[in-house]
Specification:
mainly alpha
Length: 138
């Protein structure tokens, strides 16, 4: 019973974090609801920020549904570490002062999911159950 609750809460955390993460990517790539630039413009196509936004949008969407959770989370963790150390850390050591709290927190959160997986409510879990069912002798 406790184990089922833990797997469910892991999924709730993944879904909530991924939903918020997707909004960062949508803002950078699609300028939704408002973009990072003046007058809500999206990041310049093929720029460093645009590629980061694309990773956030697509990778966040995959995290939202729990598809290939472990490898996607690992890539996103690295993206957030790069974002922190290239954008925020040069402004100062403390994340609360350099504006890097979201990047640092997401980096560790995605690193956790790269080890823990997507939880009970994920497409990964559905695929696992189907593979297990197909692997049983008939």
């Amino acid at each position: 019973m406790k184990r089922d609750l833990e797997k469910s809460m892991l999924s709730v955390l993944r879904i909530a974090a991924a939903f918020m993460f997707v909004t960062f990517g949508a803002m950078k790539v699609l300028a939704l609801p408002t973009g990072p630039g003046p007058a809500g413009a999206a990041a310049r196509f093929l720029s460093f920020v645009w590629f980061g936004g694309l990773l956030e949008l697509v990778g966040g969407g995959m995290m939202l549904v729990g598809l290939f959770t472990r490898p996607v989370a690992f890539v996103l963790s690295g993206e957030m570490a790069v974002a922190y150390f290239t954008t925020h850390f040069p402004l100062g050591f403390w994340p609360t002062l350099n504006g890097g709290v979201p990047a640092a927190l997401y980096s560790f959160l995605w690193l956790y999911f790269s080890v823990a997986g997507g939880g009970a409510w994920s497409l990964d879990a559905v695929l696992e159950r189907r593979l297990a069912a197909n692997a049983k002798p008939k």
